[in-house]
Design a protein that fits this description.
Elements (H helix, E strand, L loop, with lengths): L3 E6 L6 H15 L3 E5 L5 H11 L8 H25 L3 E5 L2 H11 L4 H7 L1 H4 L6 E6 L2 H8 L12 H18 L3 E5 L4 H14 L4
Parallel strand pairs: 1-3, 1-4, 2-3, 4-5
Helix pairs in contact: 1-9, 2-3, 4-5, 4-8
Bound molecules: thymidine-5'-diphosphate.
The site of thymidine-5'-diphosphate has 15 residues, from helix 4.
Length: about 210
């Protein structure tokens, strides 16, 4: 496909939204043709699936159902939003993607990498990101920065122990796939943004 596909990953409160915003500002300055989107969601049908997944009232949802709903939202979003944009030669920036499923459902929920890879086969092969930016900050530090978890969000309510497992999952996934770059977020948000721009330039993405 003509365009490039980059994804942002990390634990809750790692600063993805801020970094996506700062990157967008820079891309506007540089005149890059890009879109910003997110998962789960990013399209009409996928946003409806997102509501079901994140609704704090859905306490009976089993892990497999959760993983399949993320995968369902993903393929819909890929076909409806990501693929057409890439075909037009745009740079696609997606807030969360398949590595979230590997870390949250595969590792933290314990469904295993193989299961998650199987139900996300298109995302793992035909729509593999050119680069994934993993904002590397532990959940403990991230929650402290964010001042706690969102009460209405089923995933954020899972507690520090769960999110620590997610973090360990991300570290394992980042080791396995060379497309994933771990970004040290210990500096200011502007220093992190600079690191991201430098990396995108080095990799020939912008
Ligand atoms: P969101 O409010 O977008 O979280 P954030 O701002 O931290 O990105 O909610 C997405 C939630 O869904 C978040 O808790 C991570 C989780 N998630 C998974 O568990 N698996 C997935 O495949 C994806 C895409 C997200």
């Amino acid at each position: 496909m003509k365009g490039k596909f980059i994804t942002f990953e990390g634990c809750e409160g790692c600063g993805k939204s801020t970094q996506v915003r700062l990157l967008s500002q820079k891309l506007d300055e540089l005149g890059v043709d890009y879109i910003v989107t997110r998962e789960p969601g990013g399209s009409d049908v996928a946003e409806q699936i997102r509501k079901i997944i994140l609704d704090a009232k859905n306490t009976s949802m089993c892990d497999e159902c959760e993983a399949l709903l993320y995968a369902a939202a993903r393929i819909q979003h890929l076909k409806e939003i990501v693929e057409p944009a890439l075909e037009k030669g745009k740079l696609v920036i997606c807030d969360r993607y398949v590595d979230s499923s590997l870390a949250y459902q595969g590792y933290a929920r314990g469904l295993g990498e193989e299961y998650v890879e199987k139900i996300n086969s298109a995302a793992m092969s035909s729509f593999c990101p050119d680069l994934t930016l993993f904002l590397n900050i532990s959940p403990k530090d991230a929650f402290a920065r964010k001042h706690g978890a969102d009460e209405d969000d089923r995933m954020e309510q899972l507690g520090l122990e769960f999110h620590e497992k997610v973090y360990q999952g991300y570290l394992a996934v980042a080791k396995k796939y060379p497309r994933i770059a771990a970004i040290d977020c210990s500096g200011t948000k502007y220093q992190t943004a600079e690191k991201i721009i430098t990396l995108l330039k080095d990799r020939g993405i912008i």
